[in-house]
Backbone:
C-alpha cells in the first residue's frame, strides 16, 4: 500500500513537472494606469512576435482597473509578465520575495533610468508652489503607485514640515494617473500627484510619463496645469516575469523584451507608453530603497 502511494506520488510529481514545462499561453497584466482600451491598443503589438520568440500558442492580455489586480495576479500565478512601478514590485516582494524577478527597466535618452512625482494644480487655481497648497484637497493616483502615492507619502512631510493629513484639508485617490489628472482639471482635487521624466519641457508634458501620454492622446493641454512640486528621482519600474514560469521560458521572455527596442522600436515605444530609448537589465537591488520605503509607509 505504502509502495503504491509512493509510486502515485512520484507519478503525480513527474506529471506536474512535465505540465510546468509545457507553457502554451503567456499572460500579460496591464495595471490600470490609463483606460483599458488605450492600454490594450498600445500593448497588442507584442503578441505575435512574443509567440514566435517563445513558441507559445497564445499571448493574452489582462487589464485591471487598478494596480492591485495585477499585483495579485503575479502573486497567484495567473499573470506571467507585467511592467509596473517600483512600489508595485515592492508590494509583491514584501509578500513573496520569490514570486517574480524584475528583469528589465526602461532607459531615457540621456541614459538615466529614473523619473519623478509631479504634483500639479489647475493653472487658474491661484496655486503656485507647495506652500500655497496648504488647506487644499490632495489627490493621489493609486495606493500601489510609486510616484502617485508612496514617494509623496515619504517625501512630502519633510517638505511641508508637518504630516500630510495636518497640512491638507482632505486627501483621496483618483483611480489611476489619467483619472487623477482629469480629477484635478474637473475640480475633484485642488492638487494631484502623477509622474513624468522631468526632462524636456513641462509645457509638452516632459519627454515621458503620464502627462506626456495624456498630451499625445489629446486629453490634456498643459496650459491648463501648473507644476507645484517635483520629487527626488525614482527608479523606473521593472518589467517583471513570474518565477512560476520554467527557467528557459523566463529566459526567452527576457531576451524578447530586451531585444524589442532594436527589433521593433515602434512597438517598444507603444508598449512602454513612449519617451524611452531602450530596455536595460534590472534586479532586486535597484529597488531596495523603494521596498524599504513601502515597508515603512504601507507595511506590505
Residues:
Amino acid at each position: 500500500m505504502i509502495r503504491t502511494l509512493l509510486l502515485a506520488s512520484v507519478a503525480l510529481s513527474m506529471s506536474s513537472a512535465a505540465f510546468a514545462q509545457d507553457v502554451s499561453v503567456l499572460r500579460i497584466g496591464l495595471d490600470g494606469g490609463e483606460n483599458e482600451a488605450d492600454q490594450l491598443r498600445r500593448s497588442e503589438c507584442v503578441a505575435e512576435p512574443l509567440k514566435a520568440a517563445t513558441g507559445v500558442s497564445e499571448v493574452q492580455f489582462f487589464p485591471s482597473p487598478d494596480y492591485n489586480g495585477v499585483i495579485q495576479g503575479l502573486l497567484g500565478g495567473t499573470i506571467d509578465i507585467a511592467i509596473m512601478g517600483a512600489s508595485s514590485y515592492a508590494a509583491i516582494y514584501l509578500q513573496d520575495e520569490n514570486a517574480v524577478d524584475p528583469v528589465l527597466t526602461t532607459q531615457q535618452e540621456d541614459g538615466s533610468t529614473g523619473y519623478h512625482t509631479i504634483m500639479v494644480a489647475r493653472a487658474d487655481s491661484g496655486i503656485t508652489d507647495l506652500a500655497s497648497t496648504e488647506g487644499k484637497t490632495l489627490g493621489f493616483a493609486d495606493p500601489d503607485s510609486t510616484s502617485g502615492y508612496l514617494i509623496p507619502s515619504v517625501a512630502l512631510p519633510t517638505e511641508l514640515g508637518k504630516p500630510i493629513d495636518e497640512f491638507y484639508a482632505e486627501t483621496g485617490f483618483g483611480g489611476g494617473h489619467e483619472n487623477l489628472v482629469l480629477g484635478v482639471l474637473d475640480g475633484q482635487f485642488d492638487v494631484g500627484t502623477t509622474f513624468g521624466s522631468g526632462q524636456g519641457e513641462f509645457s509638452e508634458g516632459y519627454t515621458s510619463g503620464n502627462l506626456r501620454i495624456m498630451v499625445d492622446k489629446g486629453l490634456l493641454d498643459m496650459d491648463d496645469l501648473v507644476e507645484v512640486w517635483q520629487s527626488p528621482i525614482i527608479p523606473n519600474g521593472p518589467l517583471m516575469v513570474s518565477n512560476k514560469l520554467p527557467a528557459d521560458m523566463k529566459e526567452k521572455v527576457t531576451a524578447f523584451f530586451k531585444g524589442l527596442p532594436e527589433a521593433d522600436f515602434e512597438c517598444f515605444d507603444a508598449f512602454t507608453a513612449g519617451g524611452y530609448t531602450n530596455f536595460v537589465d534590472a534586479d532586486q537591488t535597484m529597488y531596495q530603497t523603494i521596498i524599504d520605503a513601502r515597508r515603512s509607509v504601507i507595511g506590505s
Observations:
- Residues 1-20 have pLDDT under 50 and may be disordered.
- The radius of gyration is 21 Å.
- Residues 2-21 form the longest helix (20 residues).
